[in-house]
Input
Amino acid sequence: LEEMQKTLNSQFNRASDLSDSVDGKLGDFMNKHEALEAAIEDEVKKVTAIRDRLAALDDINGDDDTLMKRLDETKALQAELQAHENTIGDLQEKVGDIESQYQTPESAALRRALDNLEKKHQTALQKSEKVEDNLEDALEQQVEEVRVEQQRWLGTAREKVDWCADVSGDKYSVEAKLATIEDILTNQQQGE
Output
């Protein structure tokens, strides 16, 4: 009877140790799961905020300075997205570790949340590239329009100067040529 009691006590102690071990592993899993879940959720919020800021920058109206500010901010947001890429890589590694240690529905849910984050991140990157391209195209178009206008003004000014180069003629002809030269000088800012 004593032998059976010792065996039972030994088995109870072993069961208690196993229970403590399971509790420790479960607590470890829950802590890792909750930390990863919070980190993924935080990244989703950050990437979503960047995507929303990019949407606000997707406007090609305005002067050169306004477009340049939008372009600079877009590039800064792209750099932020690149920094988040590193964080997402770290999260992938941690989720992979937890999946290999604990094959549970909770770890599968973490993988789905991480996949969702990666899709949002990729969408935000694509949006940033599109916004950057649109702003650069708008700036290039404005530069081309200014160049064409400047060439038009310069061509007209050259024609007037060529006409004024011949100083022969009567008093009225010379006065008209002087007025034309004054007009060129007055409107010189248009050509700059």
In short: The first helix runs from residue 2 to 57.
